Amino acid sequence: MTGKGRLALVVGSGDLVPQAIEAARAAGWEVRVLSLHERDDLAAENPFQIKVSRPDQVLREIRAFKATHVCAVGGFHMSDRERETFAEFAGDREARSRGDGKLSQLGSALLKMLGLPFIGVHEIVRDLLAPEGVIGAVTSDDDLLRVMNFAFDAVRRAGTFDLGQALVVAGQRVIATEDIAGTDELLHRCAALRQRGLIGDGRATLVLAKSSKPGQPLHVDMPAVGPQTIAGAIEAGIVAIVVEAGRTLMINREEMVARADAAGIALFGIAARDG
């Protein structure tokens, strides 16, 4: 996206955050950083420290900055109490912990209260989205393609229950799904299962699948993969990673693909067929 404006950048964890800040300024945006987590690498930005228990302060800061647009980037982690507080402030009268999909919808509703458009980080940082088909140098045979399609369909179904955005399969069997700890922890769990001899000792190939949840707003909490994902995949014995084409962020893409190629891990993008 080109054009100038005042961008309130709500940031979480991860390497994409400083890249997004730099890209936004290079494109002509005036940027105000609001951070959900304390980050030493952002000290020069003097970020507004978000307290999820006080969403009214976040809205007040965005108004004070006179933002014209809002963008969220990075990983976001909230406790049950924080989720409940946020949901109640956004007008959800069912005071219980909400899943990520529901919270992203509530976040969109809050921004509508401000009258501000929400833009995706992929509109700021170029060439972030995963393409369809083979990514990298490692190709897949028909058997592996069948497993990847099974894994992708499974992660899409899991998304309808507002579960995580990733899972791992062994052949035609789902062996682990992402929880609130994220994809890195999912891969650590799979590595532990492999060390115990529970997976990865037969002919069934291990495949990681990542996808957005059906109906999920694409301007917040998009699935992402990067070099750290490849490191975890190597530890877990993953032979292929399948992602949702056009809706998955590829962080530090060149480094990630190079690491996957070196490890013999196939990367593949599939376009969702169910919205």
UniProtKB/TrEMBL annotation:
LpxI N-terminal domain ranges (all copies): 6-128
Origin: domain of life: Bacteria
Protein name: LpxI family protein
Residues annotated as domain LpxI C-terminal: 131-267
PANTHER family tied to this protein: BLL4848 PROTEIN, LPXI FAMILY PROTEIN
